[in-house]
Amino acid sequence: MNSHILLALALVLVLEGLGPMLYPRAWKKMILAMTHLPENTLRRFGGALVVAGIVIYYMLRKTIG
């Protein structure tokens, strides 16, 4: 596996862990609020995150080399 992918995965894990580590109550409230959202809204939100991630990846890849 490419080392860049592993570094990106490590960064995702760090960022995902910051919320529950620093703000556990707010994080739980946000998760509970998300359970009440329609599935279509969650899919759109997830899709937007995936597209944003791909765009950032290709922009950085082109810039960094």
How would you characterize this protein structure?
The chain is built from 3 helices and no strands. With 65 residues, the protein is mainly α. It has one domain. Helix 1 packs across helix 2. The radius of gyration is 15 Å and the shape is flat.
Secondary structure elements and their pairing?
Layout: H1 3-22, H2 24-35, H3 39-64
Helix pairs in contact: 1-2
Helix-residue proportion: over 70%
Largest sheet: none
Helix-and-strand structural type: mainly alpha
Head-to-tail CA distance between termini:
18 Å
The portion of residues forming beta strands comes to under 5%
Q: What is the number of E strands?
A: 0
Overall body shape: flat
Low-confidence stretches: none
Written as H for each helix and E for each strand, in order along the chain, the element string is HHH
Tally of helical runs: 3
Rounded to an integer in angstroms, the radius of gyration calculated over CA atoms is 15 Å
Global mean pLDDT: 92
Number of domains: 1
